[in-house]
Amino acid sequence: MGLVLQHVTKQFGSFVAVDDVTLSIPEQRMFGFLGANGAGKTTTFRMILGLLEPTKGEITWNGERITYKHSHLIGYLPEERGLYPKLKVKEQLIYLGRLRGLHKEDIVKEMRYWLDRFKIPQYENQKVEQLSKGNQQKIQFIAAVLHRPSLLILDEPFSGLDPVNVEMLKEAVIDLQQQGTTIVFSSHRMEHVEQLCEHICIMHKGKPIVHGSMKELKRSFGKKNVIIHGELPFETLTEVPGVLKMEKTVEGVRLQIADEHVSQHILEHIYAKGFIRTFSLEEPSLNDIFIEKVGAAYEQ
Amino acid sequence: MNNKFWIVFAHTYMTKLKSKSFFISTVITTLIIFGIGQLDRIIEAFSDNGQKTIGVIDQTNGWYEALQAQMQSNKEIKLVRHDENEEQAKKYVQTEKWYAYIVLHVQNGQPKVAYYAKNIADSDVTHEIEQALQQVKIAMMAKQIGLTYDQINALYAPIAIEKVALEKHAKTEEQLDQARTIVYVLLFAMYMFVLMYGSMIMMEVATEKSSRIMEILISSTSPIQQLFGKILGIALLSLTQFVVIFTVGYTSLQNSDMLNQLLGMEKLPLSLLVYGMIFFLLGYLLYAMLFAVLGSIVSRVEEVQQMAGPVTMLVVAAFIMAMVGLNVPESPFITVMSFVPFFTPMIMFLRIGMLNVPIWEIVLSLALLVGTIAFLFVFGSKIYRGGVLMYNQASSWKDLKRAWQLTKR
Fold first, then answer.
1. What is the ipTM of this complex?
2. What are the transmembrane regions (chain B) (predicted)?
3. Residue B1 lies in a domain
4. Of chain A residues 110-169, which have a CB less than 8 A from chain B?
């Protein structure tokens, strides 16, 4: 069953924020929403949580519409970060946890586990305003997962964190998914989505341009990349039929090609023209797919 | 479901109770109340207890003696006859041997007084002299035209007006005086509480919103439970503060006349107190709701005052009308206003206190008030739900409409 969105549309006056989104997110999966700012990700999340009513369509979680009755099953990390600045970490988490239907003792136990895991146990009795921004974000993440939700919605969970903390949070997210949590998250950082998600949806101006499993998307995309490192006259490479794009890198070039056979023509073309250190054929990155699809949508 | 209400309620109450600002404001208010109770003693402690010596240059025939006799009982002023020249008197004042001196003479049978002092800011002294002299003058003149003491008394006896209401249930004079005091005290308390705690609620909501924790809250608890929890949590807080202040105030005022006058009234009309409580509670709910909803559409805490303005004006307007209404409770304007829900808590209560209002009028006004509150809760919780998701550069009343639209499909 999982999370099902059927023809969901949201209008604010005449502005269409989300346009006819139909998605099905199976249970215990990690699902990524991609999109530029204003693509409709946050609005979609707010509709899933029941904070906003869809203008059209229906959203169900295991066959039921999400209401406050399900509050203990849902975890939410909003894009706009915020906690009570004057409250201590412990007081804060106890309040938020109790609002999700937990008992105080369970909250303290869970809180200690997470604080240890994030290596910040010393902040338990400090006021939130004394914490660094990154640590505040960890506390917010803890608030979202304290009650072990079955559906976890994370709006831009990694933004504003340093690489070490990003890794820490990513591991936590992966663990939660393996323990059976369905996770929906949004990001505009392709590499995060690429690493974590089996299923994705690329939103653009409220419309889901692409959605499906990552493998499937990459395979059906057809185009591949060729990476060449070495000392060669690269300029003439664009003349090879099937080469779509050329991008210079520090050590050489990165080419986008129409299909994998083109790579052999390229190899013939550069053969014996100079020193080749690396020549590799690679799957398209999510970035390539995103640029292609969103770029096409711009041109329409 | 109800469980969440109690969590919000307890959280609001406890965090506010433990906050520094609550502690400080309670202590300061308590000190002020305590100070008022001890005001007499404080003023006494600061004023110089010594008698003020006033020199008198008497240019009349026997008035000084009469004045002296009249002022014998006055402990603050001591009169001294001065027979030397006025220059000497001036010197005495300048060297602070005397507080002041007066020159007394009679013209056409009327006493004339010139008062000389270092400064003439202290009106108490001249007032005392004037009063004493007035008495002396009456006595002197009465003697001249041969009036007896009893005749003078008869001349000055105050006129007693006995007011009798012919309507069967109309209140007696004594009842009205009682009612006026109770109504006044309760109106004032209502005014203070609504303004103080109403803006506290608005601040609370605006702070939660501006610290962006609201979205987490609203995704875990329904806005109605949050609103009720906050409003009643702060109501309990206000009650706590009230009990503290009242206890201190009562202890410190125990011996003062003011309190005895207030509590010494026999037969405190119980029904009026009950009405007072009902209107107090409903009025608080109504305004607290308005403040909370406004707080939800504010993006930054700094904008709270600006947005609260119109609602504050409404409370002030109700209070002013009520103060005027205390003297003219029967005026058609007051009658009409007592049915306007925003004014009902103060003005209908005032009418009940001062007049004999038919029961159907009370029921009607209560129904209107409760209806408005119910409407505001339904309407307001929707705006609240939309408002807390909305962030703008500058907030305005138009945002009410936008917040409302945000909750629609």
1. 0.76
2. 21-39, 182-206, 227-252, 272-295, 307-326, 332-350, 362-384
3. no
4. 140, 143-144
